TrEMBL record:
<dbReference type="Pfam" id="PF12911">
    <property type="entry name" value="OppC_N"/>
</dbReference>
<feature type="transmembrane region" description="Helical">
    <location>
        <begin position="349"/>
        <end position="369"/>
    </location>
</feature>
<feature type="transmembrane region" description="Helical">
    <location>
        <begin position="110"/>
        <end position="130"/>
    </location>
</feature>
<feature type="domain" description="ABC transmembrane type-1">
    <location>
        <begin position="181"/>
        <end position="369"/>
    </location>
</feature>
<protein>
    <submittedName>
        <fullName>ABC transporter permease</fullName>
    </submittedName>
</protein>
<feature type="transmembrane region" description="Helical">
    <location>
        <begin position="35"/>
        <end position="52"/>
    </location>
</feature>
<keyword id="KW-0472">Membrane</keyword>
<keyword id="KW-1133">Transmembrane helix</keyword>
<dbReference type="InterPro" id="IPR025966">
    <property type="entry name" value="OppC_N"/>
</dbReference>
<keyword id="KW-0813">Transport</keyword>
<keyword id="KW-1003">Cell membrane</keyword>
<dbReference type="InterPro" id="IPR050366">
    <property type="entry name" value="BP-dependent_transpt_permease"/>
</dbReference>
<dbReference type="InterPro" id="IPR000515">
    <property type="entry name" value="MetI-like"/>
</dbReference>
<feature type="transmembrane region" description="Helical">
    <location>
        <begin position="72"/>
        <end position="90"/>
    </location>
</feature>
<feature type="transmembrane region" description="Helical">
    <location>
        <begin position="187"/>
        <end position="209"/>
    </location>
</feature>
<keyword id="KW-0812">Transmembrane</keyword>
<feature type="transmembrane region" description="Helical">
    <location>
        <begin position="230"/>
        <end position="254"/>
    </location>
</feature>
Amino acid sequence: MSDDDQYRDLTFDQIDWEEQSSAGLSLSTRTKAQLVAFGLLGAAFCYDLFVVAPKAPTMTWPFTWDVTGMDWTFMATLLVLFFNGVVPLYQNQRLTKYYWTEFRKNKAAVVSLGYIAVLFVVGGVGPILLSAPEQHFSQMYLPPVGMTASPQGQVVTGTWAHPLGTDARGRDLLKLLVFGARVSLEVGLIGMLVMVSFGTTVGTVAAYFGGWVDEVLMRYTDIQMTFPAFILMLLMVYLFGGSLFMIILLFGVLSWEGTARLIRSEALQKREEAYFKAAESFGASNGSIIRRHLVPNVSSTVITNATLVVPFFILSEASLSFVGLGDPDVISWGQVIASGRSSLGSAPWIATLPGVFLFFTVLAFNYVGDAARDAMDPRNTSE
């Protein structure tokens, strides 16, 4: 039985809050498992950094995989989301069943969730199993299989060797889409985690302490909201380069203000509940109250806001890549669309196919976010 389970059926006056505060190092089973998982990931990262030779692949069996710094960050993000999103839902199956019952009322959202699941598999596993797209100038402008076109004045027919065709440099378009899916997931999820971390911390701390702490944090939030974030992002990328890590960091750091205000508003209502007063009167520490009571009680707001911000980050990164300010060393859907815009008349598949996938990805996340908000917000319960 975990540390949280042994207190589940006790009332506040039956819990020794001084013992709870003094036992702050006592960890739940989920936290221990999370620490072990991150320890293993950290050990693998150190192995890649200090043992594997420079420019050599991290893994050579059963497949060759050169793990990049962004890949390590993405894996750490997935661990955080798994232990703090998936595991709590599994542990509270009754509430999860209720959420799913409400969620599946939106048929478009269910289909979108399936699309996102497939996208995760393709974007997560595809770049590991497939080799990176290579340039073959003898195979430029090949149309998708079954199609015939004459982009350079010579009639060519698509083959199964390149089922979705090739671009202006002879790169396989299917591989470009798969590698671009990984980048979109990295941008959306890592940027979302950074944004949620800042927004949740600022919002809950401001609501809990109130007074001058609330005033200082909210006034800074107001000041940051006055800056045009996308223009500032363009300036930073132009001045310091458009590495993917920097773009993601800027997305998260410059986009948390609305989340912080939303969470603060929700937390102010929860702050007046009786169990907060009881926790304080029985000696629970401020950190324990925020971590154990305030953050979990605004988690539905955090989750729904997070799902709605992911498509914005994906679309923003594609926009930067389209105008040439993205990371030139990674394959992005926006970058592929930009490479095909000059040949829309003769080779429309180059820009159209990644554009279609980008459209459906953003649309799917929006549908899922809307349905998650309706399912988790009791005020939206139908009569």
